[in-house]
Each structure stands twice: as structure tokens, then as C-alpha cells.
Fold:
Amino acid sequence: MYNRIGVIGNKDSVLAFNAVGVEVFDCTQPEHAKELIKRLSKEGFAVIFIAEQLAEQISDVVTRAKTQPYPAIVAIPLDKEGTGYGMRSIKKDVEKALGIDILFNRED
Amino acid sequence: MAQLKVNPTRMELKRLKERLKTSARGYKLLKDKTDEMIRRFVVIARENKILREQVEQELGIALQGFVFSRAVSSNQVIDEAIIMPNRIIELQCNKRSIMNVAVPSIDIKEQSVAQDMYPYSFTSVTQELDNSVEILDKLLVKLIKLAEVEKTCNMLADEIEKNKRRVNALENVIIPQLEETIKFIKMKLDENERSATVRLMKVKTMLEQN
Structure:
């Protein structure tokens, strides 16, 4: 049964999530993150938040996870400056579904 | 245009006609399905974008507060303050179906041990930490929602792509192929019929001459 939430990122930014009852995992290395994701999906995590920087480095794993309902891996900007990876992935989805990006191109 | 390799018989013709009928019907249904999925996808993608913008902004504020509080108090104090959370968030996860695509639907089933959401005493840490924890706590609902919406978006996009491919295959390959083959068999059968008639006429004249 999927019912847990986890956050993966570097220790300083992730720790804040501990206060609100989310399980946190300190991780900065891509290889480590891959293993972590593999482990967490087996352990029944429904939602895994991951720092954008990390997600970008292991985008193959993140992309592969998109095809199943669980776990939902969401890239969020945990460091001061996000890399915009999350936004780009929405854009990519739109392009995939509609052929061209007709929803967001006004802002760019 | 490529046609199927079949024997030009009436049996085959009947079978192919049936297949063409099914394909045409399937094509129409799939096309309608794609249209509806795209309509829903556009709504969800918009929601996804708005939600993500909000989350990213608020998350920035919350984490900034956290960094501030780290700067003011010592690391040890902060760690000690938040290492044991007051509450454990549990999720209620189900699958929902949008146009026969199983997408997640996630609800928060909160198990609060204490009434107070701050897992520390106010004397030890600064106000920034209070603020950032409060914002994060409120943000969590949105984060979960974001996860749900984003996943839905991903899966729908995937399904739309697959569906489009099916529609294209039917429209541009299967249906023309079947039509072509049916035409071929019809012509062949007509040809056979004509040659049979001619043969009969020929035989008749030969018989009359004798």
C-alpha cells in the first residue's frame, strides 16, 4: 500500500520538511539518489519530492517513473535557485500530447 | 499502396469487409477518445502550471526562512528542534480513471499526535523557523496536490501519444490497405466471372459449329 511521503535533497534544505512530518533523505550524489528512489518505490512511498538539481541529473529514472501511477516523483526547487526542471517537464508533456506547446509559449 | 497477401476468394472478401467495418468503427472511437483526452489534458496542464508556480514561490519563502533561522541559531539547536516531528503525515492513495487511464488520487490522512504543529519549544529557536514551518505545513497540501496533478498530466500525455499513434496507424495504414485489398479481390472475382462467361460462349459456339 502506498501511503508515505519522502523528500530527497541536500541536508540543509530537506531538514525543514522533517518538522511537518515528511520523511527526509539526505542525498547529493546522483547514483545514491537512483538507489534511493528504487528503494523508496519498493517501500511504498506514494510521493517522492526530489531536488530539481538531482532530478535533472537522473532524469532517465524520473522519466521512466512517469508511466506508472505510483510513486509520483516530483521535482521541486529545494535550493535557492531552481533550475526550472519542473516547469520544463510540464512543457515537455504538453508538447508530447499536443504536438506543439500552445499553452505556455505566450510567457516565454 | 501495399495490399495484403490474400487469396482472392469470396470467403476472404467477406472476412476483409468485416475487418474494414471494425477498423472504421475503431478509428472513429479512438479519434473521439483522443479529442476528449486532449480537452481534459489542457485543463489539467493549466492547473499543473498554476499550481507549480505557486508552490515554487511559497517553497522559496519557506526555505529562505529556514536558512535564516539556521544562520541565527546553531545547527545543533535547529536539528534538535525539528528532528522529532509532532505529526506523521499519512496518505490515502487510490486510483482514479480518466478516460480509462489509471491516474493516482492522493488524499492526506493526517495523524496528529499533538494539537500543536511545532515540534519544539518556542524558547529555543527564532521566529523565522516558526514561520517557515507554518508555511511548509500549509504548503504540504498543495505539494501533494501538485504531485497528483503532475502525475495525471504525465500519464495523460503518455496515453494521448499512444492513442494518436493508433489513430494514425488505422487512418493511414490499416484502412487504406483493407480497402485496396477488397478492391483487388472484387476485381479478381469479376475477372473470373467474365472469363467463365467467355469460356461458356466459346464452348457453345464450338458445339454449334460441329
